[in-house]
Design a protein that fits this description.
- The structure holds two protein chains of two kinds.
- By secondary structure, chain A is of the alpha+beta class.
- Chain A has two domains: about 230 residues, 3-Layer(aba) Sandwich (Rossmann fold); about 120 residues, OB fold (Dihydrolipoamide Acetyltransferase, E2P), CATH 2.40.50.140.
- Chain A is about 25% helix and about 35% strand.
- In chain A, helix 2 packs across helix 3, helix 2 packs parallel to helix 4 and helix 3 packs across helix 4.
- The two termini of chain A are about 30 Å apart.
- Chain B folds into two domains: about 50 residues, no CATH class; about 180 residues, MetI-like fold (Orthogonal Bundle).
- The chains are: A alpha+beta, B mainly alpha.
- Chains A and B meet through strand 6 and helix 2 of A and helix 8 and helix 9 of B.
Chain lengths: ~375, ~280
């Protein structure tokens, strides 16, 4: 166990920012705290770091209770959103400052700084001041500052939000490589789902100070535990179709208007719903196909609908339809937008859907 | 931004030059008078250049002009002022920087109340402090000494420097502090290694403001100064406004110019930093 958070609560005055957070990750995990702004993800990171005192609960790192410990004594390193490089110090001193604070000898500091600089390929920048660096270079120095301490856990607070798209994907790759090489625990805060999906071994989706779901990226994407997670995760918004449960004909089905979607293969979390219960079915745009072969034999719902709207997104097109009075969006590989009103045959892959209770919005 | 020369700017610059002349004219008059013999001062026009240039008034101003019965010029007062101003400036700036750091970056519930109290204190008219100060200095047994004046100027300078440093330090990104805390740096380590190196411009602003305050002080100097070692402003007043004997305008002008030089030079040398310090915003990088 690397980090264990038990019943973490954090209040700022009367405002509850974090509410009963329980997360446990293993050594070498890459935890991503995912959520929109104001959900408490940065506060949670600060609580792990010790920059914020928790109101209630326990923070354990590597089996040690650090709840009351100063940030500098938790053996963590943090990379900040603005990088927070010390403006008056050279890159070398920025990196070695933590060692200086620990009282490491000068010769040894220089040796360590050199190693870190080589690893990050910033050796030629060591004598510069932060103001003479580009965004990407600053980012590397900030990571170097964390690396040099050889901490138990690396904390990263939206480290890539100040980089342009191209640099971002490169840094994403490099961070992942670094994580693999070091084998240490990483905790990254982000609102970017690509970062979450591509880097995490574990994702915690946060909203309103609560963990909405904690699991692998695969679980979070394919088995969202509630409608919020389903809606929040994924580049293209998930479609939600309301229907009623119909189990009296022997086979579990969802009636959406006149359509009947078979739920024979759906794994209900807490047993079958009651007859006639109102249910929301979540379908990802990429689980709607135009050809039957894409289904690979999965159970499906076949419909023929006119196109109501379409948009080109580069390699793909997004196409909107109306199904039983409810709007759905599909994403196809295509080079050209279909015409409005063109009748299109669609196959909705029922192995890839998620069902939610219509009022509690919890996964069924 | 580039300006095209047209009627509007011509008018603007003419007006500005007229104002500049208006401000500089008295200085010119004083300067020329200080290089004239007393006889020539009385005979020639105030704007005429000296016919015979003489440094005599300057020498006399420095080491021979009479302040009361004491005819040693302004040299002893000049030195006495620096003996008071330098320690007071150093203390006020150091304490102000430290206060500002604590108030801006180690926030407690009391920081704002404390800061408001200090500000109010610094806006109270000086004369209200005279009697309490006199009693305090007497109790401390430093009444009428330079130490007493150093203490007064330090105490009076601290609210100003605290305000300057606090307002500047609040613009420093908090993440800088957090990064340092994560790096394991303590209270003093952060102050001396991260905050202080970021402060040269604001320090110069503080030095200039406190120094001019101390240097130009008249009330405290007159009330609490050590006799014979009074700070310069009270001496200048004594020499220039002397009711006895002949008015030596040439010497008096030299006295006034000498006494104005330190603050003038300070502004000229550090003016660039002063402006930068006043406008200093968030530190990028």
């Amino acid at each position: 166990m690397s980090i264990k958070l038990t019943h973490i609560e954090k209040n700022f005055g009367p405002i509850k920012v974090l509410n009963d957070i329980n997360i446990e990750i293993e050594e070498g995990d890459f935890l991503v705290l995912l959520g929109c702004s104001g959900c408490g993800k940065s506060t949670l990171l600060n609580c792990i770091a010790g920059l914020e005192q928790v109101t209630n609960g326990k923070v354990e790192i590597m089996g040690r209770d650090v709840t009351q410990l100063d940030p500098g004594k938790r053996n963590l390193a943090m990379v900040f959103q603005s990088y927070a490089l010390y403006p008056t110090m050279t890159v070398a001193r920025n990196i070695s400052f933590a060692l200086e604070c620990q009282g490491v000898k000068k010769a040894e500091r220089e040796k360590t700084v050199k190693q870190v600089a080589e690893l990050l390929q910033i050796t030629q920048l060591l004598d510069r001041k932060p103001s003479q660096l580009s965004g990407g270079q600053r980012q590397r120095v900030a990571i170097g500052r964390a690396l040099v301490r050889d901490p138990d856990v690396y904390l990263l607070d939206e480290p890539m939000s100040n980089l342009d798209a191209k640099l971002r994907s490169q840094m994403r790759f490099e961070l992942k490589e670094l994580h693999r090489k070091l084998g240490r625990t990483f905790v990254l805060v982000t609102h970017d789902q690509i970062e979450a999906m591509s880097m995490a071994t574990k994702v915690a989706v946060l909203d309103q100070g609560k963990v909405q779901q904690f699991g692998t990226p695969h679980q979070v994407y394919y088995e969202p535990q509630n409608k919020f997670v389903a809606e929040f995760v994924g580049l293209n918004k998930m479609n939600f179709l309301e229907g009623r449960f119909n189990g009296k004909d022997g086979e579990a089905q969802l009636s959406i208007g006149d359509y009947q979607a078979s739920l024979a293969n759906y794994q209900f979390a807490n047993g079958q719903p009651s007859e006639g219960q109102s249910i929301i079915m979540g379908v990802r745009p990429e689980s709607i196909y135009r050809s039957k072969t894409q289904l690979e034999g999965h159970q499906h719902l076949e419909v023929e609908l006119p196109v109501t709207r379409s948009e080109m997104t580069g390699s793909d097109v997004q196409v909107w339809f109306e199904l039983a009075g409810q709007i759905i969006c599909a994403r196809f590989r295509a080079t050209k937008c279909p015409d409005i009103g063109a009748m299109t045959r669609l196959y909705i892959d029922l192995h890839m859907v998620s069902l939610f209770h219509s009022t509690s919005e919890v996964r069924l | 931004m580039s300006w095209k020369f047209n009627h509007k700017t011509a008018l603007l610059y003419t007006a500005l030059m007229v104002f500049a002349l208006y401000f500089l004219a008295p200085i010119y008059v004083m300067l020329v008078a200080s290089f004239k013999s007393l006889e020539e001062v009385h005979q020639s026009s105030v704007i005429a250049l000296p016919e015979i240039w003489t440094f005599e008034p300057w020498v006399k101003a420095w080491s021979g002009a009479c302040s009361g019965l004491n005819c040693e010029g302004i040299k002893p007062f000049f030195i006495a002022t620096f003996e008071i101003a330098i320690p007071a400036v150093i203390l006020a700036v150091l304490l102000g920087a430290f206060n500002g750091y604590v108030m801006a970056k180690w926030r407690s519930k009391f920081a704002d109340i404390l800061f408001a109290t200090m500000l109010i204190g610094s806006f109270v008219p000086l004369q209200l402090f005279l009697i309490p100060l006199a009693v305090t200095l007497r109790e401390l047994d430093i009444y009428g000494t330079s130490i007493g004046l150093i203490l007064i100027h330090t105490v009076y300078g601290v609210p100003l420097t605290t305000m300057l440093f606090r307002n500047y330090y609040t613009t420093l990104p908090n993440e800088l502090m957090r990064a340092a805390v994560m790096d394991g740096a303590g209270f003093f380590k952060i102050f001396f290694h991260i905050i202080v190196p970021l402060s040269p411009a604001i320090t110069i602003v503080a030095i200039i403001l406190v120094f001019s305050g101390v240097y130009n002080d008249y009330l405290f100097a007159l009330t609490f100064g050590e006799s014979g070692k009074r700070p310069i402003m009270s001496a200048v007043q004594n020499i220039v406004a002397s009711a006895y004997g002949i008015k030596e305008y040439n010497v008096n002008n030299a006295v006034v110019i000498i006494s104005a030089l330190p603050t003038l030079l300070l502004f000229l040398i550090t003016g660039k930093f002063f402006v930068r310090g006043l406008t200093q915003g968030a530190v990028k990088g």
